[in-house]
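Retro notes, item 3 of 5
We never archived the inputs for the fe (ii) ion complex last cycle. Fixing that now. Sequence and ligand:
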Amino acid sequence: MNFLESKTKENLARAFAAECQDGARYQFMAKSAKADGFSFITDQLKMLAKNEMAHASRFYQLMLKNLGNTKEDNVPIEAGYPFEPPELSSSLQSASDIELYEAKNIYPAFAKIAKDEGYAEIAEAFLLIAKVEQTHHLILQAFADMYKNNCMYKANSKLLWKCSNCGNEEERKEAWLNCPLCSYPQGYVMIPQQKIQQS
Ligand SMILES: [Fe+2]
Ligand SMILES: [Fe+2]
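Structure as it came back at the time:
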């Protein structure tokens, strides 16, 4: 099939736009998290934003590769994107929902179309990126639940908490309000992986 007339060309453009916007939204959320004192969450959001830019780059490269010598000045797409306040109280949940939708619906559907149209490499990229979006969904959902239940820094059993500023570690049920070593506030405490996975 001629790439210019393929559905895959439009899907790649849509996916590129979606990844750029996901990345931008995570940067806005990171700023909001930082302002609220959630430094560890800020770092996590920045990492997610970086992932999204890497996905955007992969889609962009695939577009260029498949266009070959053909130049496309403008690829029209029809798609909707959310515009929501970056405050963690609502944005963590909606970001989690968007990731799940990308992981379970959008990218698998785009992969199937790409495969049917004969673009195996693009189909594989959609599937690999869908897998990453699923892990993003799980992280964001865990943070959203912890935020909602006000238990970001509490656990039912002893966990190993670590200060992201000075590296001080301590096993306890609840993270310190101020680090005993560097006095940095609770927002710098790294939420243990175990707690994220249990959430
Ligand atoms: Fe992504
Ligand atoms: Fe993502």
